[in-house]
Amino acid sequence: MKIISKLAGALAAVSLLPSAGGALAQVSVGVVVSTTGPGAVLGIPYRNVFEILPKEIGGEAVRYVVLDDASDVTTGVRNAKKLIDENKIDVLVGSNSVPVSRAMMQVAVESKVPLIVLSPMLLDGVEHPWTFGVPQPMPLMVNAVLEHMKQNGVQKLGYIGFADAWGEAVYKTLNPQDVVPGLELTSNERYQRNDVSLTTQALKTIATQPDAVMVGGSGAPGALPHIALSERGYKGTVYNTHGSVSGDFIRIGGAHAEAAVAPTGPFLFADQLSDGNPIKPVATKYLTMYDDAYGASARSPFAGYAFDAYLLLQAALPEALKTASPGTPELRQALRDSLETNVKNVVGTQGIYTMTPQDHNGLDHRARVLVQVKNGKWELMKE
């Protein structure tokens, strides 16, 4: 009986080990997003998506380990390193914050781990070989706004933006630019994300008599310039970035946010896209998945970026697994290479992705639409 008992124990132990063919191997995806702090309005929808994603890709089991960066660069870097060193992840995803993402990019290079960023960054594959972007880069989105300005005769543009990397990125995209000939930037006012009043910035901007004002904000704090300008009687068009297209923006801005114009990805407006748009069925599928899990009232355009990160892995991972096993440096390298060479015309919820060794964003004009606040709701202006 003792021999049988020992044999049974040995067989049980063997059954817990990966098979020679790797059938029990598991791909690990490490995710760093802001579920607390000022960036939580963006990060929580991302976390929500990773909780409902399929637990396999190409027949391989996948686990998602999600950590909160608390909207803080130091915390984000610490968590990225923890995922790599302790959780032995095969790919890193995050963050929704540009400053945190930039810091994580350095971690990815040092550790040779592919990183899929969830914040808008312009990524040259030669300069950033380990990083791939899901959100639309700033120039692609801001140019949609500039084209609207050109159509509406805007020649003098005021600017109020965050006093951080996001606000600076928007401003640099506006100046210089080649869409609106002779466009004059009349102001360059900045504010902190946790400010509660922008009276001074609004008054200085209005004094320059701009035809329109561009706000370089995101999330709920992106509504503050709209409030300040409206309260002081400004009647021109006030534009914002794709980072502000959310229910929280309207909740904070209220009537002062009415008529705001912004670019965004197609995801949240899938039902308003034309039937011939190839993004519509994909966006509709994943939007329905999100609604079923969290309710239509929880809809967020940012959720689509997390779905697209999954779709990029779905396109790249099977090929990488042909030459390497999960949990190895070889898979990290193979996955990096596959993201660069096997993501071709991948239709996502936010656009159609084609990565190249030079372009690690892979998106074009099909990844953007213009929306406007009408009667307290964001509505599609036109495709």
TrEMBL record:
It comes from the Bacteria. Residues 1-25 form the signal peptide. Residues 26-376 form the Leucine-binding protein domain. Gene3D superfamilies: 3.40.50.2300. The keyword Lipid biosynthesis does not apply. Keywords: Signal. CDD domains: PBP1_ABC_RPA1789-like. Coiled coil: none annotated. InterPro entries: BCAA_transport, Leu-bd, Peripla_BP_I. PANTHER family: BLR7848 PROTEIN, LEUCINE-SPECIFIC-BINDING PROTEIN. Belongs to the leucine-binding protein family. This is ABC transporter substrate-binding protein. The lineage of its organism: Bacteria, Pseudomonadati, Pseudomonadota, Betaproteobacteria, Burkholderiales.
